[in-house]
Amino acid sequence: MNIQSKVFDVTGWVTMAPGVQRRIIADGEKVMVVEIHVEAGASIKMHQHPHEQISHLKVGHGVYMVDGVDVALEEGESVVVPSNTPHSFVGVERCEILDVFSPPREDFRA
């Protein structure tokens, strides 16, 4: 078995919007894992992308709007956002999110 691994520097935080920061914590050929911190009241504006996305809320409480439907998430819950589906997020309280993207987000690598 041939196993390749990479060790990532997870200190590279990027500000996405006021009160919203992200960093790549794993980046593979077909999948990317991103940690996102959202302060209480901060938001990620409505957007869409060709990547399938799974968001897992590690800490906090927030509301996704996915294709016009509000999806409230508590700690430990996840939501799947299909490719090219409009979505946004608001942190009701401080949130820590793990986002998984397939394929990886080239725009996040820049």
Give the total of beta strands.
10
State the order of secondary-structure elements, H for helix, E for strand. EEEEEEEEEEH
Compute the CA-based radius of gyration. Answer: 14 Å
SS strand fraction: over 45%
**Strand arrangement, major sheet:** 1-2-3-10-5-8
What is the CATH topology assignment?
Jelly Rolls
Into how many domains do the coordinates divide?
1
Q: Which CATH-level-2 architecture?
A: Sandwich
Low-pLDDT ranges? none
Q: For this structure, what is the CATH homologous superfamily? A: Jelly Rolls
- Calculate the terminal CA-CA distance, rounded to whole Å: 32 Å
Any idea of the CATH class? Mainly Beta
Number of helices: 1
Helix content: under 10%
Silhouette: globular
Mean of residue pLDDT values: 93
Structural class: mainly beta
Task: Note the main sheet.
Answer: 6 strands, antiparallel
Q: Top keywords for this entry?
A:
110 residues, mainly beta, Jelly Rolls, 6-stranded antiparallel sheet, 4-stranded antiparallel sheet, 4% helix
Describe the structure.
This protein is mainly beta. It has one domain (14-109): Sandwich (Jelly Rolls). It is 4% helix and 55% strand. It has one helix and ten strands, in the order ββββββββββα. It has one helix spanning 106-109; strands at residues 14-17, 20-27, 32-38, 43-47, 52-59, 61-66, 69-74, 78-81, 87-91, 95-102. The chain has a six-stranded antiparallel beta sheet, with no helix packed on it. Strand 2 (20-27) and strand 3 (32-38) form a beta hairpin. The longest helix is centred in the last third of the chain and has 4 residues, at 106-109. The radius of gyration is 14 Å and the shape is globular. The mean pLDDT is 93.
